[in-house]
Write the structure tokens for this entry.
Amino acid sequence: MILSKYLRQILQLSVIVVCLLVGFSSSAQAMRIGLSLLGTYETGIFDDSAAEIPAYDPNTRRLFVTNSANNGVDILDINNPTNPTFIGNIAAPGVNSVAVQNGLVAIAQAASEVTAPGIVSFFDTNGNPINTVGVGSLPDMLTFTPDGSKILVANEGEPNEPYTVDPEGSISIIDVDTLNVMTAGFGGFNDQIDDLRDQGVRIFGPNATVAQDLEPEFITVSADSSTAWVSLQENNAFALVDIANAMVTDIIPLGFKDHSSPENGLDASDRDGEINIQSYPNLLGMYQPDTIDSYTVDGKTYIVTANEGDGRDYDGFSEEERVEDLTLDGEAFADPDIQNQDQLGRLTVTNTLGDTDSDDDFDQLYAFGSRSFSIWDEDGNLVWDSGDDFERQVALFLPEFFNSDNDEATFDTRSDNRGPEPEALSVGMIGDRVYAFVGLERVGGIMIYDITNPNRPFFVSYSNNRDFTQPPQTPDGFSNPLALDSGPEGILFITNDDSPIRSDLLVVTNEVSGTTSIYAVSKVPEPTTILGLMMVGLIGSVKALKRL
């Protein structure tokens, strides 16, 4: 028993030492770029989605930020990015997303009844209304094509709480000149439901057709404006869209991440009181990307995904279960302690997958999200995945707040459910290098990876503009400015050509703190970002060693 305890301590010590060595190696690579905070706009609104999705107009040098708490879009002047200034608010009840191009602001708005058709409203950059068109149910995200000729809208089509009404998901395609709306729907796939399920597309809503069950989440468009890839988050799939013909041409399953592989470990428990990243047998992760982006290498398009994960949890239907409440197959899970709370017992998984032999027990477990970001080719084949690197980097840099939640500073509280929860994402080119900026919704902060070679990305830096020593909310209910940023929801990369200061910028909108922060992306890291975090990681790791 004593020997086992000391072996465990030696293994833990070895992991920490390896993490430190990897961290210093990564920091050497990170000398290429870092984030330096320039300025922050504060709404003062706490945990009410007061800053979610940003868009930028380079001509007026204005940011447009969705503010659900105020039912509209805030207009911010960033001519001086060290002092972003509020200009006004565009009223837009039910706002979900905003995009701007060539002086035209497009806003996606859900109906007051979530299952009813939504609208896209158009404004000029001063907030003056231009027109409105109807789109599908629950327009969740919209984007202009690179050539500016069309706007694509992801109509999520979520059901109501009793799950008695489940509208069809779809993609609206709006011609910018005529405002004519075409719809790319999924009805043509309804008779392929069994084949799609067999291929791995998750179609599982009660009595749902394919068209009802598929829920478009986010869109990225090819450089030539001809093809769109649409993330179907709950369904763990992509939809491929022919834009000119307004047609969904394919539904591509994304497959599953094997958490039994050493490089795909995770911390599965919020009750073990420690950082414990490890692999488990017969545990798989559903990628379930939220934000997606794309870039081109040698004429080929690559899709980059932030694999947040999402489960359906409605009054009328819920798929979310803890492993401790399931009946597991005794051969597949031979360890009698596997369902203990310090192992897999607390992990949230789906109850819709895993009984492979239909004998009413689970032979495999499927967790929500993969706690990573991934790169896929044009056909939806996985090119690269970051494995368990997010949790390992957070363990290195912020061990005291590993897998913290976003509305309070905690330790290990999100390990049982999606961990750091990567959600926000933007791809940007600096010089001849391409970088992915990934926001972690729970613990916060931005992970930066060099993805110039899609087959061999590498970690560059992690910057977190959050003060965990401060309460995120003031006693009177406002967002605490001393706590800085929490809950990154949207990321926007602004090139130096479009920047008001002729320097690459990164805009991060934070839904919990209600803040919009602007960073300079520099080729030499500032002490408050990379090097500062390295010191935090070193100090935290020393504290972790003392606990042993």
